[in-house]
């Protein structure tokens, strides 16, 4: 069917987050890993392309996104969404602003919006300032993110150095007055030449108003949550027909493997809370011996017991590994080991994969040779089960952002897929 909304996400967990929120409507959502090298076929009303561009060089991120835009246009899309992290992960040089300006240029549009709010996961925006729970972004753990340390909470100040055109705000007082008031504010800002408008949102009700006001813009940008209301809006006015194909859950063997390379505080708690069998990966041991011990353990265990392989470690241990191996090298060694475990587990019959961490998800997805995902039901806000094919086998896979999910996430994921 013709694509109604074409979405481009800057990382894999972000893409499944976005696709999961769109799929809440029950409408089919396709997720493509990277830009497909063939013309669109079997397209859905909502198409999401997952890039790995969040921390890529600006020119590379812009080029990748423009190619993704072209593919989505050839699928019939006329409205587009640029998805970045709900914590606005970026630096003064990009990539959020430069990519948005390139998309605006290609779409011939003079204004777009920025709304990374995700109230269900504690991300809210008030007077242009982003909060993580009750904490300003710049005082949250994102302050010390290794690649994109967020040392300011004000989205206008964060965005301004990334773009060439003026930045403005539509604040919560306007949003609270409804979609017409917000449209009027956007028009007023447009007459002042404001190209980039940050919009406040502290609750889901705000997102419904924003989506309603902005639904026909050629380009919207934000975290995942601001597009969540769009399917219902498109169904209500007939843009999307009610008989759009729905996602179905395939029958899958119970063999399961869990793989965690995220070291976030939430993932550490989730690994600790997991009651199933666990095997720890030590980057220093992996550097010396490769994943031999992990693979031996994998061979010895019945995959219906749902073993967890984790490199997840406390900050001191991570720093120690990084100082001995180098930061990039430590990460690569772990990602390589988890990828090898994933493909071996698949060859031993695993058909359900639970993966924690953005970079880790990219590595595991690529090693499994996945190019396309269909989105199923959510396990936690922003973390859906997805369905794909790997080496000819139907599989289920979930890609969890480091920060998302409850402490019981791993058990929740197992329970959620019967
Ligand atoms: N014990 C460890 N020591 C050093 N690096 C690690 C360790 N465990 C995991 N890593 C690496 O840390 C990175 C975690 O990033 P990622 O998977 O994106 O998680 P998150 O989504 O929480 O940021 C990966 O590159 C992973 O390989
Ligand atoms: O918007 C979000 O917070 C997530 O969708 C996301 O992008 C998470 O990124 P990682 O924490 O790097 O997985």
From TrEMBL:
Q: Which residues form the Four-carbon acid sugar kinase N-terminal domain?
A: 5-229
Q: One Pfam family of this protein, by short name? A: NBD_C
Keyword presence, Oxidoreductase: no
> Which InterPro entries does this chain map to?
4-carb_acid_sugar_kinase_N, 4-carb_acid_sugar_kinase_N_sf, NBD_C, NBD_C_sf, OtnK
An annotated Gene Ontology molecular function = kinase activity
Q: Which UniProt keywords apply?
A: ATP-binding, Carbohydrate metabolism, Kinase, Nucleotide-binding, Transferase
The UniProt family comment states: Belongs to the four-carbon acid sugar kinase family.
Name this polypeptide is given: 3-oxo-tetronate kinase
Source organism of the structure: Pseudorhodobacter antarcticus
Lineage of origin: Bacteria, Pseudomonadati, Pseudomonadota, Alphaproteobacteria, Rhodobacterales
């Amino acid at each position: 069917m013709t694509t109604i909304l074409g979405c481009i996400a800057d990382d894999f967990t972000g893409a499944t987050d976005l696709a999961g929120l769109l799929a809440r409507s029950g409408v089919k959502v396709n997720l493509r890993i990277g830009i497909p090298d063939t013309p669109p076929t079997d397209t859905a009303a909502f198409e999401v392309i997952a890039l790995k561009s969040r921390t890529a060089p600006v020119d590379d991120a812009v080029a990748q996104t423009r190619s993704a835009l072209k593919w989505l246009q050839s699928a019939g899309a006329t409205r587009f969404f640029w998805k970045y992290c709900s914590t606005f992960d970026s630096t003064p040089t990009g990539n959020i602003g430069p990519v948005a300006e390139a998309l605006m240029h290609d779409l011939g549009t003079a204004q777009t919006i920025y709304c990374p709010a995700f109230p269900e996961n504690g991300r809210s925006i008030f007077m242009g300032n982003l909060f993580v729970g009750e904490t300003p972004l710049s005082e949250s753990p994102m302050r010390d993110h290794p690649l994109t340390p967020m040392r300011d909470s004000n989205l206008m100040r964060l965005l301004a150095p990334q773009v060439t055109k003026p930045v403005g705000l539509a604040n919560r007082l306007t949003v609270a007055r409804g979609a017409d008031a917000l449209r009027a504010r956007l028009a007023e800002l447009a007459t002042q030449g404001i190209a980039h408008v940050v919009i406040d949102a502290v609750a889901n009700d705000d997102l419904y108003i924003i989506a309603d006001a902005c639904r026909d813009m050629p380009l919207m940008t934000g975290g995942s949550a601001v597009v969540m209301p769009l399917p219902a809006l498109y169904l209500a006015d007939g843009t999307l027909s009610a008989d759009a194909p729905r996602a179905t859950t395939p029958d899958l063997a119970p063999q399961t493997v869990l793989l965690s390379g995220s070291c976030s505080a939430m993932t550490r708690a989730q690994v600790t809370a997991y009651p199933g069998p666990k095997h720890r990966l030590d980057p220093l041991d992996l550097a010396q011996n490769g994943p031999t011990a992990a693979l031996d353990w994998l061979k010895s265990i019945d995959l219906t017991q749902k073993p967890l392989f984790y490199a997840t470690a406390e900050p001191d241990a991570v720093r120690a590994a990084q100082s001995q191996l180098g930061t990039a090298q430590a990460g690569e060694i772990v990602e390589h080991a988890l990828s090898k475990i994933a493909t071996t587990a698949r060859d031993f019959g695993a058909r359900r994969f639970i993966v924690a961490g953005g970079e880790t998800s990219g590595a595991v997805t690529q090693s499994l040779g996945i190019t396309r995902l269909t989105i199923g039901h959510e396990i936690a806000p922003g973390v859906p089960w997805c369905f794909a094919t790997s080496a000819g086998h139907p599989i289920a896979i979930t890609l969890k952002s480091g920060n998302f999910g409850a402490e019981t996430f791993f058990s929740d994921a197992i329970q959620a897929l019967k």
